[in-house]
Amino acid sequence: MSENSTVIYNGSCPICSAEVSAYRRQALAQGLPLEFTDLTQGDLAHFGLTADQAARRLYLVQGGQTYSGLDAFLRLWAVMPRYRWLARLFGLPLIRPVARRIYDHIAAPLLYAMHRRRQRR
User: Fold this and answer.
1) Residue 113, number of CB atoms within 10 A of its CB
2) Residue 107, CA atoms < 13 Å, CB-side half-sphere
3) 81-116 tens-digit pLDDT
4) For the chain, how big is the Rg over CA atoms in Å?
5) pLDDT confidence bin for 1, thresholds 50/70/90
6) Distance between CA 3 and CA 72 in Å, rounded?
7) Comparing C-alpha atoms, which of 97, 72, 95, 67 is closest to residue 19?
8) How far is CA 12 from CA 26, 41, 55, 78, in A?
9) Angle between helices 108-120 and 14-30 in degrees, nearest 10
10) Count of CB atoms within 10 A of residue 9's CB?
11) Where are the beta strands (DSSP E) in the chain?
């Protein structure tokens, strides 16, 4: 990956924020061309997203394409030396569909529900 990629994440989510902080530290230490955009800190219109859309899952903008959910994680992990093994593991033909279902139907909705609860407070 030679061009910058942008990770769009929910900085108000303690789980998301902690995970992205680990990615950010490694990206800085390794000089990786990754940028991190907290959906709570800026306008996402130039990415074609609303804050509510971005709060529902992780997004990665790379090479003019926007990836979300497991696909975003796989692309992000693939360029990070410490996480490449996760990209290979979760990209396997038998694991990928199961991981996608877990992310799409359990993890992402749960994190989004927690986000909505935090917003109501």
Assistant:
1) 10
2) 13
3) 999 999 999 999 999 999 999 999 999 999 999 999
4) 14
5) very low
6) 16
7) 72
8) 21, 10, 9, 25
9) 110
10) 26
11) 5-9, 34-38, 59-62, 65-68
